[in-house]
Amino acid sequence: MDNIPIEEWGGHVAGSQNLSGIKVMVIDDSNTIRRSAEIFLKQAGCEVILAEDGFDALSKITDHLPDIIFVDVMMPRLDGYQTCSLIKKNPRYQVTPVVMLSSKDGLFDRARGRMVGSDEYLTKPFTKDSLLNVVADRVKRAV
């Protein structure tokens, strides 16, 4: 079994997922987080749209029609909760999965995210596997 690739015996490796054609928007005021997510997602075959805040995201969302959106909770001007709420109020994006990104992992933060319509909560710093697993899981559910 040591010489058999994981894929052949039914194991699952998130890093090897092929997510070609999936459009992912990442909204975060941290250049480091945006670039990390972009690298991980592009390696998996995703098309990536980056936005540095909620206003930037709202101006790009209709042009790109993402399949899934990651939004940072703590951003200047328009925070992640407000951004998520505005996205979900638009009938066109009500079914688009929105994943909150936060360094806080408290119950209150998760509940507040749910109240504004988020579908998932991912704690920062995230790993490549955790990010790609959320994309694969959420996009499968939306189909």
Features:
single chain, 143 residues, globular, alpha/beta, 5-stranded parallel β-sheet
Describe this structure in words.
Strand 1 (about 25), helix 1 (about 30-45) and strand 2 form a beta-alpha-beta unit. The chain is globular, with a radius of gyration of 15 Å. Strands 2-1-3-4-5 form a five-stranded parallel beta sheet, sandwiched between helices. The N and C termini lie far apart (about 35 Å). The model is unreliable at about 1-15 (pLDDT under 50). It has helices at about 30-45, 55-65, 80-90, 105-115, 130-140, and strands at about 25, 45-50, 70, 100, 120-125. About 40% of the residues lie in helices and about 15% in strands. With about 140 residues, the chain is an alpha/beta fold. The protein is built from five helices and five strands. Helix 2 (about 55-65) runs parallel beside helix 3.
Give the secondary structure arrangement, pairings included.
Blueprint: E1 23-27, H1 31-43, E2 47-51, H2 54-64, E3 68-72, H3 80-89, E4 98-102, H4 107-115, E5 120-123, H5 128-142
Parallel strand pairs: 1-2, 1-3, 3-4, 4-5
Helix pairs in contact: 2-3
How do you describe this structure in short?
With 143 residues, the chain is of the alpha/beta class. It has helices at 31-43, 54-64, 80-89, 107-115, 128-142; strands at 23-27, 47-51, 68-72, 98-102, 120-123.
